Fold this protein.
Amino acid sequence: MNTLDEMRHLDLLSAAQHQEIAAWLRAHKTPAGILAMPPHLWRVVEAASLAMNLDADFTRPPALDADLA
């Protein structure tokens, strides 16, 4: 939920969108349930993710001082 809250703080989601997505995530805790989120909610999450460049976090190599053990 931290990322969702940050999206709201950055005005990438409206208060209503934030509330609707948060409610969906609370009610559907499994990966399959989350993936079943309605398309209109996925679109705003995807747009906010692009604006925040979240994909870069997943493709960035680990820091040299990262504990890889």
